[in-house]
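Appendix B. Chain record.
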Amino acid sequence: MCGICGVIHFDGKPVTETVLRAMNARLRHRGPDDDGIFIDGGVGLAMRRLSIIDVAGSDQPLFNEDGSIALIFNGEIYNYQQLRRQLTDAGHRFRSDGDGETINHLYEQYGAACLERLRGMFALALWDGRERSLLLARDRMGQKPLYTYQDSAIFVFASEIKALLAHPDVPRISRFTEDGTALYEYLSFGYIPAPDTAFQGIKMLPPASWMRVSLNGEGQIDKYWELPRLAAPDPRARPGDYVGALRERLDEAVKLRLISDVPLGAFLSGGLDSSLIVALMRQHSNAPIKTFSIGFAGDDSFDETPHAEAVARCLDTEHTAFRVQPTAMNLLARLVWQHDQPFADSSAIPTLLVSQLTREAVTVALTGDGGDELFAGYERFYAAQLMRRTAWLPAGVWRLLARSLGREGAGYYDPVKRLRRYARAASIPLADGYFDLVRVFSADLLAELGIGALCAACNLSSYLSADQAHPVAALVEANMRSYLPDDLLIKADRSSMATSLEARAPFLDHRLAEFAASIPFNLKLRGSTGKFILKEAARGLLPDAIIDRQKHGFGIPLGAWLRRDMTPVRDLLLSRQARERGLYEQAAIEKLIREHEDRRRDYSRQLWALLTLEEWHRQFVDGNAIPQA
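Structure tokens predicted for this chain:
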């Protein structure tokens, strides 16, 4: 795993090593083991390396036989051994034993079409000295990030925005003050939808895409893979028609991700996805698997460590658990620094901490990320299905119910909070209602903040496929195009790489994703049971008690934590700096704080979104950032 960055000067002015090293230094956490630099006149590439495969070799940049192609890349190519054999038979000569050099020779053979043959997670930059052009690319699901900035004089790219900002000619201008759409998008989604970012002029290369940049400034972006359309329900389909093939493909995806020359373990939450990954790892190892989990003090309804420990005993793993104390505010500055942008998903806190714990023992960890996306596991998909069935009730009835409910608790399964959210969503059309279930600030709250007039344009319409006939399957597809790459995978990448840990997600293997898409939708969401077919595939590998346990997301007791002491929240959100930004009505912020503190409503998600927004402005716009090691 690595961090990569680079520069093109369109006027041919030589790239200086000083600038490249300054950018590269901001990526040290992604690759503490080594670094490398390549300069060819007006083109410069740099990288930081976390050595995983071929530890002693494979130093980057990597070159082809005549040195005309230079590659830096971040990630892992899991089918590199098979590709290497094919390329050797075709006459290519290798200098290293790692996976990266495979890309150089594939490019020689197939050009940009080589990306279609790669199986893995990656972000890469390949300088073609013959064509005098730079090829950038990201993996199909979007596991590894890549950001760009371009003006008339320069093109700059990097694994993280902070490295772009280390270039003296890249401006740091907040889109929240320059672009009226940025604020309501962030406060609705909880993140900035790609390809935009929080910075004016800085973009993110989309997943499954490549970009070619020439020395004259011309650029081209294209897709080399599309998420497959989900199969419609089929009442004739039987679980037995798919269980064997599904288990076989998932087992292969796990086995491929066990290739490593350094210690390897797994995250274990105690839920189905991570437990199934560990069970399959166990089949390919004679030694106990090292597993890691995290729990939370302050509210037992969020603590899954007893379930993780039960799975660890069942699978005979070497298990380590960590219990987080109420210190969310202490981690705010570090989280914002690592994410480079406002990020409202508070589960970044435990993800960062479990990554830190895991890195003390291993360098690579397998995760269960992607299982809910592939197999319709989130409760919100069942809620959408239920909204279809209760659509006959008048919208006014649902609105009246939402208004009449009393105080909300901050617990994970608080019934008032869950029923109010459902009733509000059920009162509007399905796609809008689903968005209302997942959004951070509702339309009503945005209106109170003074930006409600802009809210109508903020929805899921751009993510919905016109050729998907099943309305709930369309929402699952939209989730894979939005939340998965822009929230879940950003969080996984930043949290793991902040601690120099490589996280691998077997569920995000693109061949597994293609097969999962072919399974009839009614075998994924069956009544109120999500991931039905995955649960059937897990029978015999895990006890039924683990498989059939109620779904529990990776949340934290943020509401209870913030209520312990609201002073830091007030100090940040009601400060002179926050008021002078003029982004929203301060009276509305005061109301959110007061009602959360008085236990009338749980506004922890909304407050956390605002806290990360203000902290981001202080670090990245006001210039108060303190680089974290």
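Further analysis of this model is presented in Appendix C.
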